[in-house]
Amino acid sequence: MLLDRYDFYDLYAVMIAFRSNPQAEYNVEVTKAIISVLEKQQETNVVELNIIRNVLKTIDKIDKERFYWVYINNAYTYGYRVEKNEFYYGILLNAFRKLLQSLEQEDFDRVYDLADAFHNIPVFIADDGKNFKKFIKIQFYSYNKKYKTNLLKELT
What we know:
Layout (H helix, E strand, L loop, with lengths): L2 E2 H16 L6 H13 L11 H6 L25 E2 L2 H19 L3 H11 L2 H6 L5 H16 L3 H5 L1
Antiparallel strand pairs: 1-2
Helix pairs in contact: 1-5, 2-4, 4-5, 5-7
């Protein structure tokens, strides 16, 4: 599935919501919904607009105040850009899978730490950031130090 830059901003907002409330009852369902979007194969040249918002607004338990933005579709008048880099999609898919694993284990400290490590990745992608390895090294530093791991290696 191809996402546009605004979908990546929506993924950023999801990560911020997870970080601010890792124990929210809807986090598992939100994560599964996003994983289903990221796993979906792109079969045509048509890019579905507002795909993240559309899938999130179907979740009954979602906090409608925290996720108010899912009920407002983006209007594209300028700056519409679709990301095609499969490496980035793989990183995001595995990041959400890792979040889901921690949510299902009810390891909410790790959910917080993962959301904290991941939250800027969608913005980096949306803004066509440069030097991904340097960016990731900075983003994952605290998590890697705390858990004595190499998070990038775990996601690739």
